[in-house]
Structure formats: structure tokens, C-alpha cells
Specification:
There is one protein chain. With about 150 residues, this protein is of the alpha/beta class. The chain has one domain. Helix content is about 25%, strand content about 20%. The chain is built from 4 helices and 8 strands, in the order ββαβαβαββαββ. A 6-stranded mixed sheet has the order 2-1-3-4-7-8. A two-stranded antiparallel ribbon has the order 5-6. The radius of gyration is 15 Å and the shape is globular. The two termini are about 25 Å apart. It comes from Bryocella elongata. This is DUF5615 domain-containing protein. Pfam families: DUF5615 (PF18480). InterPro entries: DUF5615.
């Protein structure tokens, strides 16, 4: 049973069927509206341990590191974001195809991974139609221990 969920931004709601149904949350499922700010979406995803899925690279690539930087040693002070999936193509059909092609082809540091590892290792996945998905680490909470760290 998966312990993580995908939180879909309003601009990629149509991609819900690209992920296992019981693992998909829409903004309204976490008490947000389609007019919620990107910062509110990042905060909700962080609190719930969700992977954010969006087409809005510019804003989320700024908001996610800023949110993680608010981490503190206080109780409930961890502001980690457990994954960010940016689906680059603007056209809905192309997004669906690119994401479908990405499933099963994710690799990180030379080894195949799945969505669970994206969540566990707090990774960013950039999905485009031209090439394999690019997977990199998001900034990490300085107080948490990740299984790929010594």
C-alpha cells in the first residue's frame, strides 16, 4: 500500500487518470480552492507528504525551496516537500502522453525508480515530450535523515 499521494495543481487536473486513483488528491480534497496561491499548495503538500504535480515550473521551482527553507528544529518544524513533478508540455493530450511515457522510465543516479522513491527521496521530476524525464533532488530539510545519505 502506498503511503504517499499526488496533489494535482488546478492546471493538471486532467492528469488524474495517469496516476493510481486512490493516490490522487485534488486541491479541494485538502481544503484549497482552484484560486489558492502556489504557496498555499506547497504548504498543504508539505503538511500531508504529497508529491505536487503541476505545469507551472516557474512559480513552483521558486516556492518549493523557499518553503523548505522555513524548516526549524521546533516540533512540527520540518517543511520538507516530498516531491515535485513538473509536466512541461502545455497541451493536455501531449502532457498525458509524456507522463504515460515517463511511467516506468524514471531513473535517479543511474538506477530505475518509481513514484515511491520520488516521495521517499524528495525528488523533482521534469517531464517533457522530447526526452526522458529529468530527476534531481529537491532541497532537503537539514534535520531529516534520508535513506540515500550516509
Amino acid at each position: 500500500m502506498a503511503s504517499f499521494k499526488f496533489l494535482l495543481d488546478h492546471d493538471v487536473r486532467h492528469l488524474a487518470k495517469s496516476f493510481p486513483g486512490k493516490q490522487v488528491l485534488m486541491l479541494e480534497d485538502v481544503g484549497l480552492s482552484q484560486h489558492s496561491s502556489d504557496g498555499e499548495i506547497v504548504e498543504a503538500a508539505s503538511e500531508r507528504g504529497c508529491i505536487i504535480v503541476t505545469n507551472n515550473a516557474r512559480d513552483f521551482e521558486k516556492e518549493v525551496p523557499e518553503h523548505i527553507a522555513t524548516t526549524s528544529k521546533k516540533a512540527k518544524g520540518c517543511a520538507q516537500v516530498h516531491g515535485l513533478v513538473i509536466v512541461i508540455p502545455p497541451e493536455k493530450f501531449v502532457q498525458e502522453k509524456a507522463l504515460s511515457d515517463a511511467n516506468g522510465t524514471l531513473t535517479f543516479e543511474g538506477r530505475p525508480i518509481g513514484w515511491k522513491e520520488v516521495s521517499d527521496l524528495c525528488l523533482k521530476v521534469v517531464v517533457s515530450k522530447e526526452k526522458r524525464p529529468m530527476v534531481t533532488k529537491l532541497p532537503r530539510c537539514p534535520y531529516c535523515k534520508f535513506r540515500d545519505e550516509g
